[in-house]
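Form P-L/3: holo structure prediction, ligand cytidine-5'-triphosphate.
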Amino acid sequence: METTQERPGGRTVLTYGTFDLFHIGHLRLIERLTAMGDRLIVGVSSDEFNAAKGKRSVVSYEDRAAIVGAIRGVDLVIPEHAWEQKAADIAEYGVDVFVMGDDWRGKFDDLEELCEVVYLPRTVGVSSTEIKQMLRALDPAHLDELQSAVTSLTNLLTHYRDLT
Ligand code: CTP
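OUTPUT (holo model):
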């Protein structure tokens, strides 16, 4: 097994994510990561990497990185450009523990050769995708669609009443 080089200052924790529309699940994750070590590095997915994953974030990489970097306990933000960079980042930054939410359970077990790998439970009931879906429901175009559906239904009911 390859050994990792522990840097001065103790245990280094590394995670990755998109962190779009930063929410309470993201905050709770970072709080737990902070408690797991002495230095926290967060890889934030670049817009290009998100596109390659078929994802499109509402907030730009620059802004997502600035928001994550401003959270207490985050020592360094690095861009995540590709799936394969994790092993190189672990070596470069002397990472002791690599942590992901348990939606990724088992997916990164191969990194156990390089450092400890931990999957944390997600905060229940919130995700960027759900927030986007809720915002989409408020989109004026959808309100127009809803309104025209209500109008059609009202006309239908009026017609039905006239027939009876
Ligand atoms: N996360 C979490 N609890 C949540 C949402 C996310 O602990 N309710 C964690 C994920 O497990 C991941 C990190 O936050 O380790 C970044 O997740 P990200 O994919 O950016 O957030 P999601 O809200 O899951 O976004 P999406 O819906 O686009 O997948």
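COMMENT: The pocket of cytidine-5'-triphosphate is lined by residues 15, 17-20, 25-26, 29, 100-101, 103, 122-123, 126-129 (CB under 6 Å).
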